[in-house]
Batch of 4 targets.
Target 1
Amino acid sequence: MSAPSLASFVPVPPGSHFPIQNLPFGVFRSSPGGSARVGVAIGEQVLDLSVVADAGLLGDVGDVVKDTGCFHQSSLNTFMALGRPVWQRTRAALQRLLSADEPTLRDNKALRTNALHHQSHVLMELPAVIGDYTDFYASKHHATNVGRLFRGKGNELPAQWLYMPIAYHGRSSSVVVSGTPIERPRGQLGLPPSSPSSSFASLSPLFGPSQQLDFELEMAVLIGPGNERGESIPVERALDCCFGMVLCNDWSARDIQRWEYVPLGPFLGKNFATTISPWVVTMDALQPCVCSPPPQDPVPLPYLRDPSPRTFDIRLQVFIAPSAPASAASVPAAETPTTAPPNPPVLPRPPLRARTPCCPLTPLTPPPLPLVRRRSLTDCRLSLCAAATSTTCTGRYPSRWRTTASMAAP
């Protein structure tokens, strides 16, 4: 955690998502076909950590990161495996290096030119190699709404939801960085029963592209050091394993999911794509957003009780661009799942220089285009623009406020 008054010699525009208090980590290329390496975002720039580490500018943590070569790699995995003390020391060293009163990098023009790249000139990559992926049904509001959608009113929450974490394992190979085209999945499409008491038994499914392609705004946590097989991580040590958060879009084909999910849960309706943002906001950067959680009722079993319970007060926003020019349209209330049109046009993929990533921690100005829906939760803003209206959905857009991403519930 750093002082709000801390300033950087790198210009940071008013309202930027990347002040010195943030410094999210990501993987980038400065040219197509060039080598990928690790950087942090500061203002409108990306600081190349491979250059900084090779120049010996990271203080007492420099030898650790230099020996592992973690900043010359095409993923954050090696750095994340070094553990929280190394993450914190690295972040503190970077804040010192980038501070307005530190001359080492500020006054070295040649080194500064080599180390800083404008964000509009780089291509962002998937920040980590995803070896495993678990999707938690974490929001009571969301679980209730989805339960009502699939099981009808009065039978929304399964009994065990109040007692234990509910999750399923997703397909890690389909986790992609924002901007990767998403193809509308094909499968057996289940028609909803005419009433909550009726069943699918007498219904014949159809096969074809999903007619109810949905997006879900979620937060995803990247895990650093893990545990040995058969060894549990106590609740009080869980935060030490959490490197940071990304925005995540848990794409869902609701009609496929509706037909298949009983009795074993989601499969083809959820495994075709999960989009995450390229910048990882560290847990230390998110400390200003920490708050007390609401009381848990019933009280969790002892192994799930956190001696220092906390959660995050983060505002999440969605801006949706319609598939064709139109006036602003009204849509169902926020708790009603959104679906994309069945046969929308393809959005063109923008050129390299237009791919400006987004990892916001500050308020946004709404985009200058018709808004179909805007959805906000709590405060301390992380924001999202999801173009859920095309057969090939893209998320890297010319404007810094636009990216495809999502929060944690299936």
Target 2
Amino acid sequence: MGRYSGKTCRLILMLVITVIFFVAEIVAGYMGNSVALVSDSFNMLSDILSLCVGLTAARVSRRAGSGRFSFGLGRAEVVGALANAVFLIALCFSISMESLKRLAMPQAIDDAPLVLIVGSLGLAVNLVGLVIFQDCGRLCGRRGKEKKREEHREDREQELEQVETGLQEEKTEKDGAPLNIRGVLLHVLNDALGSVVVVVASALFYVWPLEPDQPCNWQCYVDPSLTLVMVIIILSSAAPLLKETTTILLQMSPEDLPVSAILESVCRLPGVSSVHEAHVWELAKGRNVASLHVKLQAPAGALWAQVSLQQQITQIFHRAGVHSLTLQLELADSDADSSCSAPCLSSSCQKLSCCPAGPVCVCAPPRDSSTEKHTPQACTHSSKL
């Protein structure tokens, strides 16, 4: 396709189809007096925004870092996914208010055949969208992986052993689809469910039509009730996306990354006295970054020992899924020295640092009086990452 990749072409195709049916649904919803169809049309509008975010992020995130964007624009998709999740939650509030109003003052669907036809076409469009992307299985797979990660994190000692021996599986981008693509898939899945609500509600009025002079019965409550169910489904997908994007923008350590086990692995390396100024965060989904200061004992101060130790530390982080590491090696003046050798030049500027000063792990092991050898000892944490 020339300048466009396969993923971009699929996004463009889905965008064109979604715009057409957004206009059709909102017109038919107001003509047929169906709150479910109107709400589904606004879901289509959120789809349009998410598709635009996906297209923009796909192009912008490939740009290399330069000037003020030293990290590049990889977080463009995170910001877009956050805005998309916030829009979805605000949309849920608006739709729920309209549904509660319709429950208090029930109304029949005026043009049931029109609403049924448009709702069926909308469902077909969403199914076509799932076929176009052919990535919906990643969502289920990702949930399964997250469940396995939770079970894996319960045994902390086993994690530490896996990091040290290199048995932990290397993390790649297959851990999950990009956030913007995940947002699009969530929108399409939610729209498919919303279209089901529209089809069910309109089919009831089509099979059992109400005369204009007849009062509303149970059929009038199906449309707003199922719409509230749809709102709950939308929130169940938007809330995790909001949480995930927020944790990335707050530069929290990834939940599936055993940070404590990694630092203990570093502490147990021969010659390491302490680890401080340790930071691990996600630049974008699946792109982990870390920086830390490592205090070395006197025997490990030789240049060849520093090079070997640096390679071992880099390998530990690499096996854990951190492939961008900034490492600062420092020499300890004594065995008890665990303070940072490169503090701020003035005490007045410590408040402007990224976090409180102090060692994260103090790893100096006691000497064995009989063998005069160091016995490995897990580090003691003194501050939160």
Target 3
Amino acid sequence: MTQPSPELPPEPRESRPFHIEDALAALIMAALCVITFANVLTRYFTNISFAFTEEFSVFLVVVMTFIGAATAFTRGHHLAITFLVDKLPARGRLWQRRFALACGLAMFGVLTWYGALMWWDDFETGLTSPGLGVPQWWYTLSVPVLSALVEFRLLQLLFKRAPA
């Protein structure tokens, strides 16, 4: 287990530890449980499967992944291998943190851009989903929007916790 470095001041506590992501994650998890349980019961008692539930469940899992990424970044709970970083002086660790946040911003920026292109392509072509037959862009819109949410959280971290 790693200990906080004595050379760096402790990171400030969140003034609002509850974010909208917490409520969304709870709602999505509840919806996933209800949908999956209903599908299992229906399949058990009638030998009929609601095929459309898989499509909707996959969409909810994708949304949950992005929300989880935003929350993990905000709380500093992403997996990090800090063996070498811990050996840096305080200023080096600060710059490494800024670099890591900038890399995250770049990656999610690319994901936002290409997600928006994918959404626009689905919108223009009128592609529909196989299970429900709804426009596919309803699902693909979540990629650029939620990637932008993660970018917003990364920007908050970059400017909030870095000393002036």
Target 4
Amino acid sequence: MQDTIHSLEQWGYILLFIYSFGGGYLGLITAGIMSALGKMDLYLAILIACMGNIVGSFLLAYLARYQKKELLTALNKHRRKIALSQIWLKRYGLWLIIFSKYLYGIKTLVPLAIGFSSFNLKQFFIINAFSCVLWAIIVGLCGYYASSGVIALLEKIDAHSYVMPFVLAILGIFMYILIAQISKKAKKSL
């Protein structure tokens, strides 16, 4: 465990920036916990996650705008999701950009939908930057203030580390079954 913490101290900010290109939730929460332990600077972690998310979202929109044909071919399986995101973009506009940061699975599709549409990229950049700042502050502070509970849980796990492989295996099987059930329901509804 100490080796992991040491590695995160050395490479944490770089990993956080790269991880924040896409989602970034888990990375930012981990950075908040590491900040509570005194291993990372909370404000720097929030800033880096925010910058990574701004760059990642804008890069997706930019690529979708100027590499539309190639991306549509690559994302052929996700055509319906992208179409739904475009409908939501027309219906909810700016609010979708702001709140999509908190919706897992939609967060990546909204910049793609914006790139595929005629939405102004400069306007998207400004709104996206604002929503990324809010997202990074909220998630980073939640990770920081929830860290005492997580640290207590990790200490209990460390005391009974021989049980962890079984717990992880059961959790993995449970997640697989849950995702399979949700996927079946989603396919039936489409």
